Amino acid sequence: MVQERELTVALLMEDPHAARELSVALRQAGIFAHFHRDLDEFWVATKLQLPDLAIVDVAKMSLGDMQLKDHPCVRDGSLATVFHYKEETRFLLQSALALPACGFINGDVALVPQVLAIVTRRTAEVTALARAQEMESRIGKLQARAGRLMGERSQGEQFKAHYDFLALLTKEVAEEARSGEFTSALFNRLAQWPAVQQVGMYELAPNRQKLVAPMLQRKAWLALPSLWIGKDCADGIEPFAVDMAWQVARDVFENEPVELRLHGGPRHPELLVYLAVDRERTADFPWDLMATMLSASWRQWRLSRQTNRASLQVLPVWEALDRLDQTHFHQNEGEKTLLLSFTPLLALIKKKTGNRFHYGACYNDFFLQMGQRLHETTRFSFCGPWHVLLFVKGSLLAREHEQLATLLAGFPFWRFFEDETRLMGDEARPTLKPLAPSAVHYLRTLEREFDELPVLEAQAKLSARLQSPPPLRPQA
Fold first, then answer.
1. What is the band of 409 on the pLDDT scale with cuts at 50, 70, 90?
2. In three state form, how does the secondary structure of the chain look?
């Protein structure tokens, strides 16, 4: 609420007696005026602090070359001026009429009514002007606040939309990765995002001394070359290795990609994701939040890999042989047996003696995934490094066979070789087939596989030789 304030008044008078009379009249309105006798003094004072009202004697409108009309506040009309005159100075009013005037005071007539009328009107003008300025200021503040609130609301709505999108993305990745590889599930979801053009990844190899890219042959996948770190990164991908990977990714991608660092537990990231994105569509996108939420999913997936539900389903090998005979002799049609054979993979490992294979990492990861895919009623037994016997309910045979076949087709056995660039063919993948329920039959199958291995290796060599072009004979 604007309150009335005391007017500031400046007097420029020729006659001190007339100035005293004006001061007395102003005091009745509660105003104490500042008296100036010369134009130059008045000029400087009003430029330093503009009064609300100036009462100027028409006889003091010039001093040498100095003219009141040239005062900048008179020219722009910001100085409210009242001209004072008497009969002997009336002829000087002619020059005052050309200036913006707030009023005139006749010194030969009663001053108090004239002064009070001018002061009252000017006070109302000043109050109205102050109120208008205050209203303008309040409107400006309200508009700024409204704009800020609208901006915050828009930013909040945008953030909520981004958060909802990321929550759905991480949920879908977690659901798909539950029965497979996290990197494959993450790529599948990212490739479905229209803003993403290409995806590349780096993760630590089992020896913790090398960065490898998952082997995915799919659209929008950009395969990154393997990188030897030269140091054992036991606590995740250390900063110097992250920088190495970033330099390579920046050279491979056409434009500078977005980098996401996913932490699965160790202090340093264990998965680096690079995205070529549409910059216009992803402006102001919270990439840090995306990395945090995906890290939580990655960590949960890693923990699920450490929860070995399969151990509850494992049978010792001698109990498995008894179970085979029990099914055979009692003609139990409600249970079927599957034989998972790792002999083709082991045969490849034996041939590649210079390419170390990480057995523990491979078998642990494979059997954890197998246990999560199989039905809780399925039992299995490890028969050395060569075979796994699976005892499946007859009603679940098709399901379990499909789950295992899918796992065998997609499991990255190549990743556990020291040099994963030497790709292995499908003939080296483990095989899955039904097995007649009999301990003797299984033992004969085991012996037959070992007998057949040299023959199969010879056939593979002959087939490779036949497919290669004959050597060129030198011409005479």
1. confident
2. CCCCCCCCEEEECCCHHHHHHHHHHHHCCCCCCEEECCHHHHHHHHHHCCCCEEEEEHHHCEECCEEHHHCHHHHCCCCCEEEEECHHHHHHHHHHCCCCCCEEEECCCCHHHHHHHHHHHHHHHHHHHHHHHHHHHHHHHHHHHHHHHHHHHHHHHHHHHHHHHHHHHHHHHHHHHCCCCHHHHHHHHHHCCCCEEEEEEEEECCCCCEEECCCCCCCCECCCCCEECCCCCCCCCCHHHHHHHHHHHHHHCCCCCEEEEECCCCCCCCEEEEEEECCCCCCCCCHHHHHHHHHHHHHHHHHHHHCCHHHHHECCHHHHHHHHHHHHHCCCCCEEEEEEECHHHHHHHHHCCCCCECHHHHHHHHHHHHHHHCCCCCEEEEECCCEEEEEEEHHHHHHHHHHHHHHHHHCCHHHHECCCCCCCCHHHCCEEEECCCCHHHHHHHHHHHHHHHHHHHHHHHHHHHHHCCCCCCCCC
